[in-house]
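User: Round two. Same drill as before: sequence, then structure, for each protein.

Assistant: Same drill it is. First protein:
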Amino acid sequence: MAAKTTLNAKNLEALGAQRLAELLIEISMGSAAHKRRLRMELAGNQGSAEVAREVRKRLASIARARSFIEWHKVKTVNADLETQRSTIVTVVAADDPKEAFDLIWQFLAVADSIFERSNSGDSVFIETFHQACADAGVIASAAGIGIDVLADKIFTALQDNDHGQYDPLIAEMLPALGDDGLEHLKSRLVQWSNEAEEKPDDADREVFGNGPIYRDEIDANHRQMTARIALQEIADAQNDVDAFIAQLPEQTLRAPMIAAEIADRLLLAGRAEDALTILDGADHRGRFELPFEWQRARVEALAALGRGEEAQAYQWQCFEQSLNGEHLRAFLRRLPDFDDIEAEEKAFAFVHGFPDVHPALAFFLTWPALAEAAKLISNRHAELDGNLYELMTPAAEALQEKHPLAATMLLRAMIGFALDYGRSSRYRHAARHLAECASMAPHIDDFGSARPHDAYVVELKRKHGNKHGFWSLLR
């Protein structure tokens, strides 16, 4: 049974309304956020219209602010924004969707003020405004906003998307726009992208850099890019692959990643032959290995064309080049039952003989096949590069419980590198690794060709006894 002094709703009710009111006034002194919350609760007692009025006032105040948002104030400011957004969605929208739509649009417009006053790396803000885009889509449907009006508002917003706050807007508005609204938005964007840019007189052109680069050219390129991205989103929404392709600059169509994006869409549209043509037309020059996305799309195109054996042969070739486990998994999935076991064994054998031991180790760790990783380390420990701590450290952690000898070899590789090359900045880590080796030693029944722990330490002292900075860390 909770004590009478435990902070919970029931115990606080016992204080009575007047005392609670006095305490709330006292607690809110000096806290603007608490005062705003109390005013919002008071407004709620008078109906959603009064709540909407309070939200509108607060959003206007945020938009007018000019002080820079320091890093330690980001959470506080975002909490204020979240309060306004949540109030619009949960209180105002339930009673008056049209008023809520106006407010959420005003909320989105506040983004310019927020980003101009904060570090562009403050991702917490962009997440809040992206959520508001999703809210706007839901509220627009409930409010029955006319599709032409809605399309025009979206078009205007996209022209002022300097901080990416409206990036998800088209996708979130699709249900409210419908086919006709989407067509209206598309026509506005096409018209905008085709507008002739007014070129100022040479004497009036604003110059950037030594190029020279002119402000009007930057603005024109930005307009074209904004319209192109929006029209690509609309093309995807309408499942119009050709319209998507039409928005890509000619010089980018041969880029492997772009070719893969187009091929994915063509495959979904049942146009595998076109997909393969696009992929095979990509520019391979200067590339040791094509992107995984391109390789995956090519396999899928070959399979869709009924060229299964060719698809499998290419998938295996990609695996052999990269040791990418996703290629192997896809290869195994296409095999008949039981054939996959033999193929996996063949793949493991290939990995064991891979020229570079490090991607081989990474493969076994991520597959995962820890016993194979331990076997690889045992057979090829002399090839391990102790400088690759970003691979060695997690590998040792993964192996230490069931394969302590393999983990020890990895730790010794890092210790050896730090001491052999006098990397004093790593001595602290090397000392920790040596302590970990000591803790695992009793669990190793047979060190094989490796020195037992005590003998290893003796040899380490013989070779590096003068590394006092290291040894002092072990005392």
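Second protein:
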Amino acid sequence: MKMSLREQWFSNVRGDILAGIVVALALIPEAIAFSIIAGVDPMVGLYASFCIAVIIAFVGGRPGMISAATGAMALLMVPLVKEHGLDYLLAATILTGIIQIVFGVLKVAKIMKFIPRAVMIGFVNALAILIFMAQVPHFVGISTMTYVFVAITLAIVYLLPRFFKAIPAPLIAIVILTIAAIYLNFDLRTVGDLGAIQRSLPSFFLPNVPLNFETLQIIFPYSLALAIVGLLESLLTATIVDDMTGTESEKNREARGQGIANFITGFFGGMAGCAMIGQSVINVKSGGRGRLSTLVAGLFLMFLIIVLGNWVVQIPMPVLVGIMIMVSIGTFDWSSFTYIRKAPKADAFVMLATVSIVVATHDLSIGVIAGVILSALFFVAKVSKINVKQRLESGKIVYTVKGPLFFASVDHFIASFDYERNEQDILIDFGSTQIWDDSAVGAIDKVMIRLLANQNHVEIVGLNPESKKLIDRLAIHNDPTPKISTH
């Protein structure tokens, strides 16, 4: 059921505001880390997260979903930044937005129906594993107190909601443990250790690149890759949030919204971004449901940087690590272990392959595309089984064909006929099959030509209108022309 504008914005004001605050606090280290991955100043990721979150709150198609700078996008930017610098990255971000808007207008979200459930489960589980793996460098082998703070954070976010739900537990953990770390002078890594934060708003400027075809040649491959990966991750995340909240989203509007957000962000010094599964899960689990939570996340992010910058840099990393571990645990589909045992072997293999490829490459798009291709291959293998039975009826040799006839089943179809027969009446019954493609018509041609060459009289019956139309248009065995009927 589609929500009204009022419901999208003001049906959950208190929950959205508190959830947005939690998300903003968790966005800062992520944005800085992704900037470092891309090889740019930390403010590029922070400005991107601010701009994208604020803009997508108004133009996106999935209320309550968080979009900002992401690791998957940052990885694609590394070669461009290294070879050509920040201005070309910003130009590529603007072009990425244009491409995504075009995809949205073309209703590219229809591709979601081609992503099987096994791939979706694999995507979610791989993302959970990547979120956890990204936290490991921030707490393993650093200090005993780091482990203690991670443990206390996890205890607060899991145990406190049993007794107190008025304020999101992650927000309480961040505030209390940051104060404790500052006043007890614990030796812990902080947000400030990731990179310097400038307390200033983003400003409008045009990327300093030549407006010519050479520039387009440089940035277009990167922009196209960013547009595809960004939309794929955003649409998959939207589907996951749909399931978590029991609500529907407008996927094509989300595609256009992501494009608008990236297009504008490029003019304000931000890098391209997309939906974030981790932050979206934090938002939902903290009570965020509407567009207001996304807007608050973006606005409070800038408030934190400009007004509370001196405090933000002192937030202990172990606290944020604990929250992200909670996110990875909550994101992982624990029923997958049962799924592996009960699902068809092909589906279980596709799910495990998707997880393995994403974790190995750290590229969500490669894993999802590989999973879809594997699913398609298994599906083709499954439906390519065609059965041709032979019987003698009223002096005629009758071949009854059952199953879809297309490129993957033509070899078995051709091999099912006896080509040694001479001067016989042969009837081929296609009443229980469908002719799907040119390969199928070609196979029928081969069978007909070889049977007719031995002076047999061959009749084709049972073709449905679509199959008959395809044969009439493409077949070449019609000299001599066999009798073709549709009864």
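Strands lie at 67-68, 274-275, 387-393, 396-402, 425-432, 457-461, 483-484.

User: Perfect.
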